[in-house]
Please model this.
Amino acid sequence: MTNEEIKAYFTTVAPSATFDETGEWLNVQVEPGSWKALAQNLRNSILHFDYLFCLTCIDWKTHFSVVYHLSSTTYRHTIVIKANVDVVNPEIETVSNIWRTAEFHEREVYDLFGVKFLHHPDLRRLILTDDFEGYPLRKNFEDPINMIKL
Amino acid sequence: MYTQTEIIKDTTVNGSEGELVINVGPQHPATHGVLHLVITLNGETIKKIEPHLGYIHRSIEKMCESLSYRQFIYVTSRMDYLSSHINNLGSAHCVEKGMQIEIPARAKVIRVLMSELTRIASHELWLGAMAMDLGAFTPFFYAFREREMINDIMEETCGARLTMNYMVPGGVMYDIHPDFQQKVKAFVKQFKEKVTEYDDLVTNNIIFQNRMKGVGILSKEDAVSYGCTGPVARGSGVSCDIRKIFPYEIYDTVAFDEVLETAGDSFARYMVRVREMHQSIRIIEQLIDNIPEGEYQAKTKAVLKLPKGEFYSRVETARGEFGVYIVSEGATTPYRIKFRSPGFSNLSALEHMAKGSKLGDLMATMGTLDLVIPDIDR
Model:
């Protein structure tokens, strides 16, 4: 499906979404509050985005962007969904019940960025130890013992 | 973290059976690296698998934020060290995409040749190691005999046997060694002669087949939902070969088939990898006598600066889809970099695949997932 058709779909189900077409794929900025229902829609509707191939987060210092790369194994179209969350209390609904791969990816983002995924079945640290303090991929993270900066 | 084996008090209704929690790893021969699985058993049946990751987490993504666009490629060799060429290629590709560098035809062919040799080497190692997990030691030597030839070819041209760092933005670092073509042809000849031995020894072995068939079943829908890629997903009938669906370099001009199996069990994943080796040989045969003359590297500036924006490139490694996501603010270092590693997503399906099966079958399931732990931990 073309970007225009996908955009037309978004204007019907999520009128507040904004688009950015400068990159390789269509970027859609969505409200974190409406994301869960929208995700369910994207998975089950005619667009059939059944494959979440990348889930990550970007620290913009003023806010976090949670980034979802979605693709369809039937139509081969790809979009990038972005949801901005607050830097003090970052929270967003989980999509692990829609795309099972999100369960691990969300745990990783929680571990390294501290973004809380609400209603996640098992939100614990995945890579770092349970008693680790801080979130290493945040821009303000400093580790005096193991300096990564060159 | 669990420090010792403990017997949890039974919570089932009849109260006659206890649940046993055991640790597989972090140092276990079948995990091929430091993966720690905490497994809850009821008798011999797996109730729950909980992977504990991070034993070799190096925070590569954070590290890359302070490395230049030329330097960060070297770190990617240390993720999936068996597909290091292809990881390098994906990273170099992403930088080229951002800089809009057109790479010479010669470099493209060399890159594809190297990628396919890497794929064969990786599958050879997997074949030997997986057969060893299931109790057959000889296939390991057979597979390493051929793999050694590839390592020698790599050593001559790239100067390294495992972490090659041969791909650079704009092409490849050096031209190929004068003996390259002749040695690759010798390898192809040897491989074609000897590959029947694998089939006699492993594929057609009834003990091996009985341990693989019907074990660790993953349905097509689940494979997509868990984000599985590579031979794991193709064993379940998901068409996901990036070389076919989003061709990069010259994959759209060479003839090869995307290998698909539909059974979704361990044997299907096994067959996908074995058949993929033949397809890689097919690609190599088409290209080895047709390496175009010319430059092997495009002219690039000494210091690379990506324009502001976001760039994503996807390549097909031996384990599946490898993605590089660069967020650039226009500086000489990336603002944020994310590596989408195939092993991470494939591992997430392990519990689903192994739940309800016997502990002994876990080795077959894990063997055909082909996990490389540094790729998962990053």
Summary: Chain A touches chain B at residues 22-25, 27, 50-54, 56, 58-59, 67, 69, 73, 76, 80, 99-101, 103-105, 108, 112, 126-130, 136-137, 148-150 (CB under 8 Å). The two ends of chain A are 45 Å apart (CA to CA).
